[in-house]
User: Fold this.
Amino acid sequence: MLDLWLQWRVLAGQEAQRGNMARSDSDLIMICTSDIAGQLRGKAIPRRAVQERGEIGVGWTPTNVFITSFGPIAPTPWGSLGDLYIRPDFSTQVDLEMPDWGIDESFLIGDVMTLDGEPWSCCLRGQLASAARRLEERHGLIVKASFEHEFHYFGAEAQPGLGYALRAFRRLGPLPGRLMAVLDAAGLQLDTFMPEYGPAQCEVTIGPQPARRAADEAAILRELVRATARGLGSRASFAPIIDPSSVGNGLHVHFSLWDTKGRPVSHDPQRPHGVSEQAGAFIAGVVKHLPEFLAMTAPATTSYLRLVPNRWSAVFNNLGNQDREAAVRICPIFGAGDEAGKSTRFNFEYRAADGAASPYLALAALLNAGLDGLDRNLPTPQVTERNLTDATARELTDLGCERLPRSLAEALDRMASSDWAKAAFGETLIDAILRHKRQEIAVMEGLTAEGQCELYSQAY
Ligand code: GLU
Ligand code: MG
Assistant:
């Protein structure tokens, strides 16, 4: 408690990041949690109250986890009963005041706790932390991850054929420059911004971090993209697909394994494609369980318009070498250099995710599945280097691959019948995801693909 108080004094004594106006202690700060809907929700309290309340944060209600992104609350087993609280984690604080750009952001992300001070089973940040802890305890491994986000910007003229074009970049106006300055001010490690292939589609990447911090940064990044677009009088959307006839917005999760001394352990130059035995076992768990956890990483009805051939997303649960249609892609190591440098840069990319997913749940799914692969000491999956859409059923079986679920309903059924998922995440969370997402399907029922895309575009 004292630590937190001291930490708070330091934070409160600082001027708002990059702003020239010091915050007043009556200004509001929002204490948030990332939920099944993939939204950051919470309550705002004055800064002075954060100081007084310390780790108590704000009160929370179990049924909030059933608030869909579209209004209706899914059938809740808890009704109006029960209490929880969101305990702030001060390391996640965003405190940005950039009046010239219309940006005034003050929020924290926290953990949802029971009244006994235990992590709540439906707290996704807690689920990720506990998966990371198990991986470290059982195998001495740490996952570093980086979320690569694609999004649509509505403030630019959308013209097909300008993928990666300087002209498309220019049309984005001040968005890229401002966004990078905003992310930088928030302490995120800048990597790349690009005008992506789709009309008015953008992509932004940041540096890798240990799992929970990586998910924190993904959640922060999405909000700062939205805030920057809003400051420009427009909006941005991370919805899985904006126009059913165009490309999707992927969320690609880059990951690598490290030992507790900070040494990279994913790379082994003696093995095929450089995939170490440990990384191979981890990825074997990921591809094995992928159909069971897909609804956690591709959680919208429209996610499945994106997960089709020729969209450079993912269609099968395969490990592909330098293949942008593989569910897990072995990324190339750019540049020459010694083995130490190469193994530091070596990483894998999970591609069957989108921005409707909570980054915490998406990464917890990868960690839990990878952990199972390590626990069972599974062999490295056969690496594919071909287009699997023309593979016969027999060839797919030989490769150990299957077609991913083709709809959210199908993916939820796979999750519902997965004993692994129930054991890894707990029955309470799996039941909550099923209730929430089945309600979402009911909301979308009867709407055209375009109509669904429009709702998701507004929601994300
Ligand atoms: N837009 C593609 C997707 O939906 C990805 C394109 C790329 O490789 O960056 O995942
Ligand atoms: Mg991309």
